[in-house]
Amino acid sequence: MDVLVVGWDAATEKHLSRFDLPFLESLPHGGELLPEYPFDKAGYISSANAWTTLSTGASFEEHGMLGFVYGPYSDHPAWNLITKIATQQWLPPLLRRIMIGRVLGTLGSGEKGSKGEKIDSADIEFKRIWEYLYGDGLIYGLPLTYPTWETNGVMVSGIPAPKPSEASSPVVYPSEYEEFVYDDEDVGYYVEMNSPVNDSSVAEEPYCAAHQTRMEANARKYTELYEETESDHDFEFGFLMLRGLDDIMHATTDVDILEKSYELIDTLTSDVVEAIDPDATLVLSDHGMRPASDYRFDKDMRMDHDTRQGVWGATEPLNLERHLDVVPALLEYLGVEEVVPQGRGAVDLVMSESDQGAVQERLEDLGYA
Ligand SMILES: [Zn+2]
User: Fold this and answer.
1) Which of 48, 205, 268, 339 falls between 20 and 30 A from 56, CA-CA?
2) What is the whole-number distance in angstroms between the Cα of residue 246 and the centre of ligand 1?
3) Over the stretch 249-262, which tens digit does the pLDDT of each residue have?
């Protein structure tokens, strides 16, 4: 494998510098990683939006993926006004977040919640990074990769894919690997309890422990899947999403739990890198976290996204500063000279209605929607 990217969803600069993380510290290059305007200044970005930019090289105005709970954003006449308000630094972060999340979402992306249409892989009109390569990708847990499509490599759908048992089509491509991936009941991104964000009867510790178990199982499975499929593929590019930190930090501010979670993600990444031995490794987060506003009335969220706290660390001098830099920098490292982003051509994908219902439930499980 030429490049392995490990997504540390929500890994936060001020936490990383505080804990002892030998793998991350061993990476010679790195720094902060910010989203594009207006999300950098508005202080809020959804993982759906961030990971779409990080994997396609397309800007938000091009791809329109605002958040998991909305449909695709299409240009709205109030964009300039809303972004102007949302980027006023004297306004409290919660208000700026509402302008971007709620107001822009409702005006430009349709109705929120169970009635509204939600984004899925079919809404992303651009090639993903490995689709520029001659070799194959081993892609695991990248958001918005369900429904799966015919692609060069092996792909395990990330959130908000339905669970395999409730999905109308396989959540792994090629489908023959689905059973291999999901033979371990801890694999996947959904835990069997409500989030404390939505349900105050759920204790923080077992909920966070369940997400830690998921991270361990997904990291282990990624290596197993590599070993299982390697002889049939020329893996040039790998992606593994470890998204537990995002769910954990929405649910707790407990320093011991945080320390354990960061140490775990560091160890798991080190284990995967040791097993697969890629030529280059990039660790990155889509955003960081900060304590949630006391005025957040809708949910009991302990921490909320902070767009100024995202980070990257790598074995190579990729010189990243913004989300939009990631795809071009990796393609340049891989020796691919292509204009980014490129449309992915006609892809015949439709998400079924039963899938849409399942996705709504899974988003609620995670405390979204
Ligand atoms: Zn995220």
Assistant:
1) 268
2) 6
3) 988 889 999 999 99
